[in-house]
Amino acid sequence: MELYYRKEGTGPVVVIVHGLYGSSDNWLNMGKRLAEKHTVYIIDQRNHGRSPFAPTHSFDDMKNDLAEFFDKHGIDRATLLGHSMGGKTAMWFAADYPEKVEKLVIADIAPKNYLEMNESSQYHLHRNILMAMQEVDFSRIKSRTEVGDQLSEKIDDQRIRKFLLKNIKRDKKTHQYKWLLNVEVLYEYLDEIVGGVNRQWFEDRIPIRNYPVIFIRGQKSNYILPEDETLIKEVYPDSSIVDIAGAGHWLHAEKPKEFMNAVLRCC
């Protein structure tokens, strides 16, 4: 699959891989700062942003998309910065292509099966989000505000609603608004998105010491809990964890300066 991307700068290569509901647009400021000393590629993953929609959305799909991207752009070796779903894509790619990885910088996700959590888990959160998105009838929508009003009936968190609204575009032909996300396919593959790339997937590779691994965690997020540190060390014994005070899961949007400083220290 030919992924949409943005490229800036010169020097050692950094590839940024966004998370669920994200896109390259969310990482422009980070990309520009890193581009002062690096060649930076920011991709849109399949079924997101300006990249093609596809009928499947597995981590094997995303890993293969990334491998194809490296080949197409002649990237021999790169530091991978991945957030959430993009962090799992990066970990899974690195497991199969360690020779192509300079360093892994993983933002607020662990190699963990999040389906095993209780009803407050990420699965139920994202299921509710994707169901609410599917219920938006764009044939009746005249403004982004109306979309936000509809989402507010099912999604209480205003920060999440604002983030989702960045994924709306007006079609030039029909003049209707639409999602820049393949919502139906993401919903269909939600079990894998939430549960995949867990410790069992790495069973025949543990311990992984081929490249440095840094996890950046939002201290207000529940994606990397204290008990997950043992799991992370089992998979990546030499890894380190950097905390961002006051940040939740979307730490790059909530605490952009602090997150950027953490990434710059890693890269």
CATH class of the largest domain equals Alpha Beta
Main sheet, how many strands, which sense, barrel?
7 strands, mixed
Unreliable segments of 5+ consecutive residues:
none
Total beta strand runs = 9
The assigned CATH architecture of the largest domain is 3-Layer(aba) Sandwich
List the secondary-structure elements in sequence, H or E.
EEHEHEHEHHHEEHHEHEHH
Describe this structure in words.
The chain has two domains: 5-114 and 197-266, Alpha/Beta hydrolase fold, catalytic domain (Rossmann fold), CATH 3.40.50; 122-188, no CATH class. It is built from eleven helices and nine strands. The protein has helices at residues 28-34, 59-72, 85-96, 122-134, 144-152, 158-165, 183-188, 190-195, 228-235, 251-254, 256-266; strands spanning 5-8, 13-17, 39-43, 78-83, 101-107, 168-170, 177-179, 213-218, 240-244. The strands form two sheets. Strands 1-3-2-4-5-8-9 form a seven-stranded mixed β-sheet, with helices on both faces. The model has no long low-confidence stretch (mean pLDDT 94).
